[in-house]
Amino acid sequence: MENILLVGNPNSGKTTLFNTLTKSNEHVGNWHGVTVEDKRKVFDNGNFCLVDTPGVYSLSAFSFEEDVTINTIENEKYSKIIQICDISNLKRNLYLLLCLVERNLDVIVAINQIDKKNKTKVDTKKLSTLLGVDVVTVDAQKKHGVENLLNHLHAKTQNKGFDLGYLSSLNFEPLAKYHSNMSKHERFLFCINAYEKNERYFKSKGYGEDAIKEIFDQTPKDSIEQIAKARYDFLDDVFIRAVRQVDFVYGQSKLDKIFLNKYLAFPCFMLILLAVFYLTFFSVGRFLSDILADLLNMITTPLVTKLYSAFGDSFVYYLFSDAIFGGLATIVSFLPQVVLLFLFLSILEDSGYLSRVAFVFEDICAKVGLSGKSVYTLLMGFGCSTSAIMTSRNLDNNNGRIKTAMICSYMSCTAKIPIYTAIGGAFFGAQNIFVIIALYIVGIVTALVISKILDKTILKSEAKSFFLEFPPYRTTSPKRILKILWKNTKSFLFKVGSVMISMNVIIFLLSSFDFKFKFVYGKSGSILESLSKIIAPIFGPIGFNNWAIVSALIAGFVAKEIVVSSIAMFNGIDASASKLISESIMLESSVVFFASKASVLSFLIFCLLYTPCLASISMLLEEIGKKFTLIAIAIQLVVAYILSFMVYNISLAVEIWGVSVLVGIFALIVVCLAVFCIYRHFKYKKCGFCENCNKCKRN
Amino acid sequence: MMTLNDAKLKHRYKIESVTFSDPKFLRRIAELGFTRGQVVSIKYRSLLKEVGLVEVRGYLVSMKANLLKGIFVREI
To answer: Which 3 state secondary structure label does DSSP give A46?
Structure first.
């Protein structure tokens, strides 16, 4: 089987073509850096294995994900490269082609006709002759031209090669003394890498730091610009002969007058987020949850009755009715909300709006040591922390990447929604929407504050280098909406669902037996109760010195989804007998476990901020290493405890003395902020851009 | 001559030179098409003016002020 590499600029349609060729359903989006790792799959009846790679602009890496692609190109064994080029931005896409062809790699160019508004016409035959490679046109989404592409793969033709004379303006002579014993092609590679000042190439060839510096000194000071200009000048010439381009600015839209407007951008973003949350949690989401809950109830109620008549008040009956059906009820009840949130995030991602969000937020993010691109990772954190941590790979600043990965678990992921809606709903009723919004805001603010602290201490920002290409606005097709719904439903039911049910069973077993393996379900003395009682006093100062809540928090360390079902189970609620984990049932258990609204608020804050699920921690380990994962966990536990303590005591004070306490606290914060601002005003502040601006008069 | 960071919104400028001490930035800027003689213009600026949206070679790219300050331009 032959390996085929799929490469291209970011957001050119690589993964869409990968999905089309291999009939897969990999994640795609109208955004820079959606693919962050290699993906491979067999296609064409087992003849080929297609390797999808993260987007690159050239063969010099600028970020971690680009490094993945360049490593694959340099070290993987493959017979051909398919380079997908977006027709709307063809010249810059073909710049990468020149880098590949100069290295004598065998390439087929697939021009993706992604944007129907663009009227660019390409003479593929002429382009093929001028560039010396096979050129085909495809529509990766509508599967047009895919057969032709496959025919070219089967034809096994080699690149015809073309005149690299466009580089003749570059003076390679001073480098001659270093490569006299090399072959012609190696000499050429040596020279272009020297001109590109590509340390990676020379290090791979065994050159030391001093030797590399000496070689680079032989090239002109502006060699990087010279070689780039030579390539673009050549492409300008190719375009005159083979491409008919109309006046068109890729990514430009009248909508930007609103979404990039200084004064409207923030309110628009907030409105969009509010609309997403309202539809997800309160209108469509709740409606669908109720329907599913009723359906499941119809199925499980007769089953539970039959189980009771068969087994009576026994272990088997409680195992099914409480642990298994209870877990199932939780999954089904919250499935619509989870799937809807993922759907809305995907629609936002497809729309091209996220690039605008990154642009708008860059200023603010920079203040706390993050990049505007971090906003995407943080937004993904509202869906699932595990996948969000993975997307942090597309950040090109290493410290920024670690910071983003460390703080994205403070975003309220979908697994925490059951806790907010069930427990919050039980105590706060219709006002719970404000509690949920407040929890989301607390999560965001905590994340930003921690990022700022990390930025000032162990993870200082490196050179600021934000750049981001703007994609055009696009709509999501109904077919893609169905695909997203199916993919996320399947993933939630099988991946998350299986964990939830198995954890529910484990928690049930621990709470059903004592240390002598005697069945004590619903009575005191279980293993879990004994263990939880040991650590429960630690939680006394934050309002829930209660073994059942502590046990639920321990279970939540494995997966947040099971916190609610654990609390319900400890209270002996037959989740299938009534309206599942609805607010009325939770109220029953909450009354038993929570002493006051203050302790509920404290519990919600603790759930929001403490250690995310095991899956997130394992992803953190992979992405940022052991040291920073341990630091992240320590920070999460400490911050969760401190904030819960503050919220609990302030809420208690409000409950006792009324709202005047809140006014007092607000006044204190305003005074502190005023003092801080005055202090900053008189303190010299470095601008960070001194290298080129020379405007720091106060320096 | 001025830097692209000082450019007025929606005015057209020609690149005179690109200067960065770190070759990594210079390489990326050049690859994106910011080469001598190229016409560029700033379309939007962020609220605190630390990011600009630049039109170059028929597409839009947003860049931080420190990158814009490394691109020297002349108004046309």
So the answer is: coil
What is the distance between the alpha carbons of residues B38 and B19, in angstroms, rounded to a whole number? Answer: 15
Rounded to a whole number, what is the distance in angstroms from the first to the last CA of chain B?
Answer: 11
Distance, in Å, from the CA atom of B34 to the CA atom of A229, rounded to the nearest integer, reads: 9
| Residue A423 half-sphere exposure toward CB, CA atoms < 13 A | 31
Whole-angstrom distance, CA of residue A410 vs CA of residue A631: 14
Task: Report which residue type is found at A96.
Answer: L
B2 pairs with which residues across the strands? B73
Give the Cβ contact number of residue A36 at 10 Å.
20
Nearest residue on chain B to A471, alpha-carbon basis: B60
- Helix ranges restricted to H, A282-352: 284-311, 315-318, 325-351
Pair A11, A30: CB distance under 8 Å:
yes
* Count of residues making up chain A: 699
The token duo for A660 is: 């005047």
Helix (H, G, I), strand (E, B) or coil at A632: helix
CB contact under 8 A, A363 and B47: yes
Under 8 Å CB-to-CB from A568, ≥6 apart: which residues?
A: A326, A575, A581, A585, A586, A589
ipTM over 0.90: yes
Q: pLDDT digit string (tens) for A525-584?
A: 888 888 888 888 999 899 888 888 888 888 888 778 778 777 776 665 544 433 444 445
Band of residue B13 on the pLDDT scale cut at 50, 70, 90: very high
Number of residues in chain B: 76
What's the rounded mean pLDDT across residues A624-636?
92
Interface test with A, best of B35, B41, B54, B63 (most A CBs within 10 A): B35
Please identify which residue in the block is written with the tokens 């795609």: A28
The verdict on B8 touching A (C-beta cutoff 8 Å) is no
Is A602 in contact with A373 (CB distance < 8 Å)? no
Confidence class of residue A589 from pLDDT cuts 50, 70 and 90?
low
d(C-alpha A682, C-alpha A636), whole Å: 34
Cross-strand bridge partners of residue B56: B40, B59
Buried b (16+ CB within 10 A) or exposed e, A335-345: bbbbbbbbbbb
Residue A148, pLDDT > 50, answer yes
DSSP, res A320: I
A222–chain B Cβ distance below 8 A for any pair: yes
Residue listed under structure tokens 């005055």 = A678
Which DSSP string corresponds to A476-510?
PPHHHHHHHHHHHHHIIIIIIHHHHHHHHHHHHHH
Dump strand ranges (E) for A87-230.
Answer: 107-112, 121-122, 134-138
Between residues A323 and B29, the one the model is more confident about: B29
Minimal-distance CA residue of chain B relative to A373: B62
CB of B75 less than 8 A from some CB of A: no
- Residue B1 in contact with partner chain A when CB distance is under 8 A: no
- When the pLDDT of each residue in chain A is averaged and rounded to a whole number, the result is 82
Q: Which amino acid is at A450?
A: I
